[in-house]
Amino acid sequence: MFLADMLNRKLKLPTAAEALPGRATALPTAETHFVNGQPLKGPYPEGCESVVLGLGCFWGAERKFWTLPGVHVTAVGYIAGLTPNPTYQEVCSGMTGHNEVVLVVFDPAKVSLEKVLATFFESHDPTQGMRQGNDSGTQYRSGIYVTGAGQQQVAEAARSAYQDALAKAGVRRTITTEILEAGPFYFAEAYHQQYLAKNPNGYCGLGGTGVSCPLPTGVAATA
């Protein structure tokens, strides 16, 4: 019974009264990207945009995006929770409300947000609620965290397009991806950054539905 209660607890977001207190200072993290050498916290080139994406364990998720042409830099961290400056262990407890996510900084002249989101939907199963594959908990939920109304519209169109693609493929499940305005993004600890570049045989944890995500009608794949 105790184990079942723990598992059920991890599938529910905590209330503000339940959430861990956290800390006032940011956790130390890496200064530069292990693969491309770009500064994780910027400054980023003029014209770049950023979006934050949650699609399961962030080790495998991050690699999907640093290999995408047009992406300037990526970093892993935590978003959409209640606890300030949480640690990885605190996030995994289910008592911070955060999602494990990837910050994707990209040049829209080289790769569109639509293409970034197509990669997002094709790289995991966005119908699983508070889990991804064998990984279970609120930190593994599917999420798109946007900056501004324009990104919100693109994200909602991409979600609808992929829901239609799933239906046409005979997948009768509803997408559970949350689309929210990006709040505070907390960079994860240094050892998590670009983890699979440092540990090529490390755990990835990503799966997918095998269904391609079409770009919304009239949207080009780049720019």
Structure, explained:
This protein has helices at residues 2-10, 58-66, 88-92, 113-122, 149-168, 195-198, and strands at 49-54, 71-79, 99-106, 131-132, 135-136, 143-146, 178-181, 186-187. It is of the alpha+beta class. It has a domain at 47-198: Peptide Methionine Sulfoxide Reductase, Chain A (2-Layer Sandwich), CATH 3.30.1060.10. The strands form two sheets. A six-stranded mixed sheet has the order 7-6-1-3-2-8, covered by helices on one side. A two-stranded antiparallel ribbon has the order 4-5. Helix 4 (113-122) packs across helix 5. It starts with a helix and ends in a 25-residue tail after the last helix. The model is unreliable at 218-223 (pLDDT under 50).
Helix and strand content put the structural class at alpha+beta
H/E series? HEHEHEHEEEHEEH
Major sheet attributes: 6 strands, mixed
Provide the CATH superfamily of the domain at 47-198: Peptide methionine sulphoxide reductase MsrA
How many angstroms separate the termini? 53 Å
- CATH topology of the domain at 47-198: the name is Peptide Methionine Sulfoxide Reductase, Chain A
Q: Numbering strands along the chain, what is their spatial order in the largest sheet?
A: 7-6-1-3-2-8
State the low-pLDDT regions, or none. 218-223
What's the pLDDT, averaged over the residues?
Answer: 94
- What is the annotated CATH architecture of the domain at 47-198? 2-Layer Sandwich
What is the helix fraction of residues, given as a range?
25-40%
> What percent strand?
15-25%
CATH class of the domain at 47-198: Alpha Beta
Number of strands: 8
Report Rg: 17 Å
Task: Estimate the global geometry from the Cα principal axes.
Answer: globular
The number of helical runs is 6
GO molecular function: peptide-methionine (S)-S-oxide reductase activity
EC number: 1.8.4.11
Catalytic activity: L-methionyl-[protein] + [thioredoxin]-disulfide + H2O = L-methionyl-(S)-S-oxide-[protein] + [thioredoxin]-dithiol; [thioredoxin]-disulfide + L-methionine + H2O = L-methionine (S)-S-oxide + [thioredoxin]-dithiol
Active site: 57
